[in-house]
Structures are given as structure tokens and as C-alpha cells.
Amino acid sequence: MAENIEYLWVEKNLPGKPCRLFNFGSRDDRTVELFTEKGYTVVGVDLLPDPRAGKTRNYEFHKGDFLEMSFKERFECVYGISSVEHVGLQCYGVEAKFADPDGDIKT
Questions:
Q1: Which end of the chain has fewer CB atoms within 10 angstroms, the N or the C?
Q2: CA–CA distance, 90 with 100 (Å, rounded to integer)
Q3: Which InterPro entries does this UniProt record tie to the protein (predicted)?
Q4: What are the tens digits of pLDDT across the range 38-79?
């Protein structure tokens, strides 16, 4: 239920279309489908592969550490639902090289 509230909050605060949304921790985030189906372009980043990559219209996926990435284009919205608190933790199959006890603070 909490996720639904978060999704609704993000959706309510989105700028008008067309716009590009940046979603960190996107692998298990259902907003990818929600927002791409509504005509938004979503750029997702996660440390783990996303099975939707290359299969979902208006979805561009990048595997890796978003703290080490740079993008030429700007984003009208940046969000990460239930993601910040997991940054730096070695869980969900994330490699040890990404472990950092201060990861959430750095994010």
C-alpha cells in the first residue's frame, strides 16, 4: 500500500509531457510501466539487470552505479521510490564492490 501512495505522489508532481524521467533503482519499480504507458520517457538505472530493458517502449535502461554516470541530456524529474535507503547495502544480489555504509548519505 505504501508503494501506491508513493507512486501517486510522484505522478501528481510530474511536469507536463513530453519530458524525460530519471529513475534510479528502477529494476523492480512498477512506475516504469505506469509512466511509459502514459507517454513519458523513463531512463532507469540499477546495479542489477532489468528484464524489461529493450522490451518496453519509451524505456532506456543503464546497468551500473548512477553515482558514477553522467548524462548529456537533462531530466525534468528524478526519482527513486524506496531506493535511497538501499544504496550501499550488499543485498538483493548486489556485488560487494558496491557496498558502502555511507551509500545512502552520499546519494
A1: N
A2: 8
A3: SAM-dependent_MTases_sf
A4: 999 999 998 888 989 999 999 999 998 877 889 998 999 888
